[in-house]
Design a protein that fits this description.
Elements lengths: L5 E6 L2 E6 L10 H15 L6 E6 L10 H8 L3 H20 L3 E6 L2 E3 L1 H8 L2 E5 L3 E3 L13 H8 L1 H10 L2 E3 H6 L5 E3 L2 H16 L3 H14 L4 H16 L2 H11 L10
Parallel strand pairs: 2-3, 3-4, 4-6, 5-7, 6-9
Antiparallel strand pairs: 1-2, 7-8
Length: 262
Protein backbone atom coordinates (compact mmCIF):
# COMPACT_ATOMS: atom_id res chain seq x y z
CA UNK A 1 0.00 0.00 0.00
CA UNK A 2 1.09 3.59 -0.71
CA UNK A 3 0.64 5.42 2.56
CA UNK A 4 1.81 8.76 3.94
CA UNK A 5 0.78 8.54 7.60
CA UNK A 6 1.29 4.87 8.49
CA UNK A 7 3.83 2.16 7.72
CA UNK A 8 2.41 -1.30 6.99
CA UNK A 9 4.55 -4.41 7.28
CA UNK A 10 3.67 -8.09 7.28
CA UNK A 11 5.82 -10.90 8.61
CA UNK A 12 4.61 -14.42 9.28
CA UNK A 13 0.91 -13.63 9.41
CA UNK A 14 1.42 -10.52 11.57
CA UNK A 15 0.46 -7.18 10.03
CA UNK A 16 1.96 -4.23 11.88
CA UNK A 17 0.33 -0.85 11.38
CA UNK A 18 2.76 1.81 12.60
CA UNK A 19 1.28 5.27 13.11
CA UNK A 20 3.94 7.41 11.46
CA UNK A 21 3.53 11.09 12.18
CA UNK A 22 6.17 11.44 14.90
CA UNK A 23 6.41 15.22 14.44
CA UNK A 24 2.87 15.48 15.84
CA UNK A 25 3.19 12.52 18.25
CA UNK A 26 1.16 10.55 15.70
CA UNK A 27 -1.91 12.75 15.88
CA UNK A 28 -4.86 11.06 14.19
CA UNK A 29 -5.49 12.98 10.97
CA UNK A 30 -8.34 12.17 8.61
CA UNK A 31 -5.76 10.82 6.16
CA UNK A 32 -4.44 8.47 8.85
CA UNK A 33 -7.94 7.25 9.65
CA UNK A 34 -8.56 6.50 5.97
CA UNK A 35 -5.22 4.72 5.61
CA UNK A 36 -5.79 2.61 8.72
CA UNK A 37 -9.23 1.58 7.47
CA UNK A 38 -7.80 0.62 4.07
CA UNK A 39 -4.90 -1.29 5.67
CA UNK A 40 -7.26 -3.17 7.98
CA UNK A 41 -9.48 -4.15 5.08
CA UNK A 42 -6.47 -5.31 3.07
CA UNK A 43 -5.29 -7.47 5.97
CA UNK A 44 -8.74 -8.99 6.37
CA UNK A 45 -8.77 -9.87 2.66
CA UNK A 46 -5.34 -11.51 2.91
CA UNK A 47 -5.72 -15.14 3.93
CA UNK A 48 -2.22 -15.15 5.43
CA UNK A 49 -2.98 -12.31 7.88
CA UNK A 50 -3.90 -13.39 11.40
CA UNK A 51 -2.80 -10.64 13.77
CA UNK A 52 -2.91 -6.84 13.61
CA UNK A 53 -0.37 -4.99 15.73
CA UNK A 54 -0.93 -1.28 16.36
CA UNK A 55 2.12 0.81 17.33
CA UNK A 56 3.34 4.37 17.11
CA UNK A 57 6.59 5.78 15.72
CA UNK A 58 8.98 8.03 17.62
CA UNK A 59 8.26 6.84 21.14
CA UNK A 60 4.57 7.82 21.23
CA UNK A 61 1.46 5.88 20.32
CA UNK A 62 -1.03 8.63 19.46
CA UNK A 63 -1.72 12.13 20.79
CA UNK A 64 -5.38 12.01 19.77
CA UNK A 65 -7.23 13.74 16.98
CA UNK A 66 -5.40 16.20 14.75
CA UNK A 67 -6.58 19.67 15.84
CA UNK A 68 -5.47 21.09 12.47
CA UNK A 69 -8.00 18.87 10.73
CA UNK A 70 -10.65 20.04 13.16
CA UNK A 71 -9.79 23.68 12.54
CA UNK A 72 -10.07 23.16 8.79
CA UNK A 73 -13.40 21.35 9.20
CA UNK A 74 -14.78 24.07 11.46
CA UNK A 75 -15.25 26.41 8.52
CA UNK A 76 -17.71 23.90 7.09
CA UNK A 77 -19.87 24.00 10.20
CA UNK A 78 -21.37 21.33 12.40
CA UNK A 79 -22.14 18.87 9.62
CA UNK A 80 -18.58 18.78 8.28
CA UNK A 81 -17.07 18.35 11.74
CA UNK A 82 -19.56 15.58 12.46
CA UNK A 83 -18.53 13.79 9.24
CA UNK A 84 -14.86 13.91 10.23
CA UNK A 85 -15.66 12.63 13.71
CA UNK A 86 -17.90 9.91 12.31
CA UNK A 87 -15.06 8.65 10.15
CA UNK A 88 -12.96 8.00 13.25
CA UNK A 89 -15.96 6.21 14.77
CA UNK A 90 -16.04 3.98 11.70
CA UNK A 91 -12.38 3.12 12.30
CA UNK A 92 -13.05 2.18 15.93
CA UNK A 93 -16.02 0.04 14.91
CA UNK A 94 -14.00 -1.68 12.18
CA UNK A 95 -11.16 -2.52 14.57
CA UNK A 96 -13.66 -3.79 17.14
CA UNK A 97 -15.41 -5.99 14.58
CA UNK A 98 -12.42 -7.42 12.72
CA UNK A 99 -12.12 -11.23 12.81
CA UNK A 100 -8.35 -10.82 13.19
CA UNK A 101 -6.70 -10.57 16.59
CA UNK A 102 -5.69 -6.97 17.41
CA UNK A 103 -2.81 -6.19 19.77
CA UNK A 104 -1.89 -2.61 20.70
CA UNK A 105 1.68 -2.03 21.93
CA UNK A 106 1.70 1.36 23.63
CA UNK A 107 4.50 3.78 24.47
CA UNK A 108 4.65 7.45 25.39
CA UNK A 109 1.55 9.53 24.81
CA UNK A 110 -1.72 7.63 24.51
CA UNK A 111 -4.33 10.38 24.35
CA UNK A 112 -7.89 10.90 23.18
CA UNK A 113 -8.47 8.78 20.10
CA UNK A 114 -5.28 6.85 20.84
CA UNK A 115 -6.73 6.05 24.27
CA UNK A 116 -9.85 4.85 22.46
CA UNK A 117 -7.90 2.57 20.11
CA UNK A 118 -6.18 1.04 23.14
CA UNK A 119 -9.64 0.20 24.51
CA UNK A 120 -10.79 -1.25 21.18
CA UNK A 121 -7.84 -3.65 20.82
CA UNK A 122 -8.31 -7.26 21.93
CA UNK A 123 -5.04 -7.05 23.85
CA UNK A 124 -3.33 -3.86 25.02
CA UNK A 125 0.16 -3.83 26.50
CA UNK A 126 2.42 -0.91 27.37
CA UNK A 127 5.79 0.01 28.83
CA UNK A 128 6.57 2.33 31.72
CA UNK A 129 6.86 5.36 29.42
CA UNK A 130 3.16 5.19 28.54
CA UNK A 131 1.00 8.02 29.81
CA UNK A 132 -2.73 7.92 29.18
CA UNK A 133 -5.00 10.92 29.04
CA UNK A 134 -8.51 11.91 28.01
CA UNK A 135 -7.99 15.63 27.32
CA UNK A 136 -11.24 16.29 25.46
CA UNK A 137 -13.28 17.86 28.24
CA UNK A 138 -10.35 20.11 29.22
CA UNK A 139 -10.37 21.38 25.62
CA UNK A 140 -14.11 22.00 25.57
CA UNK A 141 -14.66 18.86 23.50
CA UNK A 142 -16.33 15.46 23.97
CA UNK A 143 -14.69 11.99 23.77
CA UNK A 144 -17.55 11.14 21.48
CA UNK A 145 -16.70 8.09 19.38
CA UNK A 146 -14.54 6.43 22.02
CA UNK A 147 -17.09 6.70 24.85
CA UNK A 148 -18.68 3.25 24.27
CA UNK A 149 -15.26 1.59 24.23
CA UNK A 150 -14.19 3.36 27.42
CA UNK A 151 -17.24 1.95 29.20
CA UNK A 152 -16.71 -1.48 27.67
CA UNK A 153 -13.05 -1.71 28.71
CA UNK A 154 -13.06 0.18 32.00
CA UNK A 155 -16.62 -0.08 33.28
CA UNK A 156 -19.05 2.75 33.87
CA UNK A 157 -17.50 4.12 37.05
CA UNK A 158 -13.90 4.40 35.82
CA UNK A 159 -15.00 5.76 32.44
CA UNK A 160 -16.97 8.50 34.16
CA UNK A 161 -14.10 9.35 36.50
CA UNK A 162 -11.56 9.69 33.71
CA UNK A 163 -13.91 11.60 31.42
CA UNK A 164 -14.85 14.24 33.98
CA UNK A 165 -11.31 14.76 35.26
CA UNK A 166 -9.51 14.81 31.91
CA UNK A 167 -7.97 11.66 33.34
CA UNK A 168 -4.22 11.23 33.46
CA UNK A 169 -2.86 7.80 34.39
CA UNK A 170 0.46 6.00 34.00
CA UNK A 171 1.05 2.50 32.72
CA UNK A 172 0.99 0.85 36.13
CA UNK A 173 -2.36 2.43 36.96
CA UNK A 174 -3.64 1.53 33.50
CA UNK A 175 -2.86 -2.10 34.25
CA UNK A 176 -4.55 -1.92 37.65
CA UNK A 177 -7.83 -0.62 36.22
CA UNK A 178 -7.80 -3.00 33.24
CA UNK A 179 -7.08 -0.47 30.50
CA UNK A 180 -3.99 -2.48 29.53
CA UNK A 181 -3.43 -6.14 30.24
CA UNK A 182 0.25 -5.81 31.12
CA UNK A 183 2.73 -3.01 31.74
CA UNK A 184 6.39 -3.78 31.01
CA UNK A 185 9.43 -2.06 32.49
CA UNK A 186 10.86 -0.69 29.24
CA UNK A 187 10.74 -0.89 25.45
CA UNK A 188 12.91 -4.00 25.26
CA UNK A 189 10.62 -5.82 27.68
CA UNK A 190 7.58 -4.56 25.74
CA UNK A 191 9.02 -5.93 22.50
CA UNK A 192 9.69 -9.30 24.14
CA UNK A 193 6.20 -9.36 25.63
CA UNK A 194 4.67 -8.51 22.27
CA UNK A 195 6.59 -11.33 20.59
CA UNK A 196 5.38 -13.78 23.23
CA UNK A 197 1.80 -12.54 22.88
CA UNK A 198 1.92 -13.02 19.11
CA UNK A 199 3.11 -16.62 19.52
CA UNK A 200 0.18 -17.28 21.86
CA UNK A 201 -2.33 -15.79 19.40
CA UNK A 202 -0.88 -17.71 16.45
CA UNK A 203 -1.31 -20.94 18.44
CA UNK A 204 -5.09 -20.37 18.19
CA UNK A 205 -6.98 -21.54 15.12
CA UNK A 206 -7.87 -18.48 13.00
CA UNK A 207 -11.48 -19.41 12.18
CA UNK A 208 -12.17 -20.48 15.75
CA UNK A 209 -10.63 -17.23 17.01
CA UNK A 210 -12.87 -15.18 14.70
CA UNK A 211 -15.99 -17.11 15.75
CA UNK A 212 -15.06 -16.70 19.42
CA UNK A 213 -14.57 -12.94 19.07
CA UNK A 214 -18.02 -12.67 17.50
CA UNK A 215 -19.67 -14.74 20.21
CA UNK A 216 -17.94 -12.85 23.04
CA UNK A 217 -19.01 -9.53 21.50
CA UNK A 218 -22.63 -10.70 21.41
CA UNK A 219 -22.38 -11.96 25.00
CA UNK A 220 -21.96 -8.36 26.20
CA UNK A 221 -25.47 -7.55 25.06
CA UNK A 222 -27.45 -10.80 25.36
CA UNK A 223 -28.25 -13.16 28.18
CA UNK A 224 -26.64 -16.62 28.28
CA UNK A 225 -30.08 -18.15 27.74
CA UNK A 226 -30.60 -16.14 24.55
CA UNK A 227 -27.27 -17.36 23.18
CA UNK A 228 -27.69 -21.08 23.86
CA UNK A 229 -28.79 -22.08 20.36
CA UNK A 230 -26.32 -19.84 18.51
CA UNK A 231 -23.49 -20.93 20.79
CA UNK A 232 -24.33 -24.59 20.16
CA UNK A 233 -24.37 -23.96 16.42
CA UNK A 234 -21.00 -22.16 16.56
CA UNK A 235 -19.50 -25.05 18.52
CA UNK A 236 -20.92 -27.67 16.14
CA UNK A 237 -19.60 -25.81 13.07
CA UNK A 238 -16.16 -25.57 14.64
CA UNK A 239 -16.15 -29.22 15.74
CA UNK A 240 -17.01 -30.43 12.23
CA UNK A 241 -14.65 -28.07 10.41
CA UNK A 242 -11.23 -28.89 9.01
CA UNK A 243 -9.74 -26.77 11.79
CA UNK A 244 -11.59 -28.75 14.44
CA UNK A 245 -10.48 -32.07 12.99
CA UNK A 246 -6.88 -30.89 12.77
CA UNK A 247 -6.90 -29.53 16.31
CA UNK A 248 -8.22 -32.74 17.82
CA UNK A 249 -5.84 -34.88 15.76
CA UNK A 250 -2.87 -32.72 16.74
CA UNK A 251 -3.82 -33.09 20.41
CA UNK A 252 -4.11 -36.86 20.14
CA UNK A 253 -0.81 -37.12 18.25
CA UNK A 254 0.90 -34.75 20.69
CA UNK A 255 2.00 -32.30 18.01
CA UNK A 256 1.29 -28.71 17.09
CA UNK A 257 -1.67 -28.09 14.75
CA UNK A 258 -0.85 -26.90 11.26
CA UNK A 259 -1.78 -23.26 11.99
CA UNK A 260 0.61 -22.89 14.95
CA UNK A 261 4.16 -21.54 14.58
CA UNK A 262 6.80 -24.27 14.54
Amino acid sequence: MNTSTIICTQVGGVTTLLLNRPESRNAMSLAMVDELLAALKAAENDASSRVIVLRGAGGNFCSGGDLKDMAAARSGGVDVIAQVNRRFGELCAAVAATPLAVVAALEGGVMGGGFGLACVADVAICDSSANFRLPETSLGLVPAQIAPYLVERLGYSQARRLAVTGGRIDGITAEKIGLVHQCFADTAALDAGLAEMIVEVLACAPQALAATKLLVARARLQTPLALIDDAAQAFALAATSAEGAEGVMAFVQKRKPNWAPT
